[in-house]
Amino acid sequence: MARKKKNSGGGLRGDEWMATYADTVTLLLTFFVLLYSMSSVDAEKTKGIANAFVSMMSGQSGDSLMQFNLYNGEVPLIGGETEDRFEGGEELTDQQKMFNTIKEFVHNNNLQDVVEIVDDERGVAMQLRDNILFETSSSDLREDSKAILNQLNTIIASVSNPILIEGHTDNRDINTSRFPSNWELSADRAVNVVRYFVEVLGQDPKRFSATGYGEFQPVAPNNTYEDMAKNRRVDILIVTSKGEES
């Protein structure tokens, strides 16, 4: 029988590279299994990535999968904030969670033009201009304002926090038989909002309080009609501060 000739080039035969390749693939697979076993899988973030990818493929806004909806926040960012945590795993405070919840509610119900969300040291306020709720120099709720209060009642009913209703005016004097000063006007407006939530919408009166501040807590100078309009407002404050709850 003829003897097979040895490979005179001294290198590997045509199929010998496969053994080296198989060893490399095995080592890589072992390495990735090890990494996976040491990591924690965030199901919500994975879901967010999938949603972002689907949204992008359907032609919705967003520059890329890594920056999808950077400004409107409808799809979570990869590596950004989730519902309850900041980037890096830091948990949101109760007030930050409340702010995000109210912001989403206002956006979903198209209330951006009538409700301004204000971060207060005591909690989160939904701020409404006086002309949305009342006629000039009146504390009686306008009929068309009640639909807005009905919508805001949904978010109030979804939490158990105390609610502070605060009335504010500009610095123009008022002196009528019903309202000798802005104190009475602002206080009566706040009380009427509370009464609507409690007597009409059935909220627990123990959660509510009403305060009138007159013209003494402005948010803008009373130099122009536009700034005066900002000062004439009612704040519906959802309390998150422990000090205010006691």
> In CATH, what is the class of the largest domain?
Alpha Beta
Strand content: 5-15%
Side by side, the strands of the main sheet go: 1-2-5-3-4
Name the helix and strand elements from N-terminus to C-terminus, one letter apiece. HHHEEHHEHEHEH
Count of helical regions: 8
Report on this model:
- The protein is an alpha+beta fold and 246 residues long.
- It folds into 2 domains: 13-91, no CATH class; 94-245, OmpA-like domain (60s Ribosomal Protein L30, Chain: A).
- Helices cover 40% and strands 12% of the residues.
- It has 8 helices and 5 strands, in the order H-H-H-E-E-H-H-E-H-E-H-E-H.
- It has helices at 17-38, 43-57, 94-108, 130-133, 146-157, 182-200, 225-231, 242-245; strands spanning 116-120, 123-129, 163-168, 208-212, 233-239.
- A 5-stranded mixed beta sheet has the order 1-2-5-3-4.
- Helix 6 (182-200) links the parallel strand 3 (163-168) and strand 4 (208-212).
- The longest helix has 22 residues, at 17-38.
- It starts with 16 loop residues before the first helix and ends with a helix.
- Residues 56-82 have low confidence and may be disordered.
Features:
246 residues, alpha+beta, 60s Ribosomal Protein L30, Chain: A, 2 domains, five-stranded mixed beta sheet, 8 helices, 5 strands, 40% helix, transmembrane helix
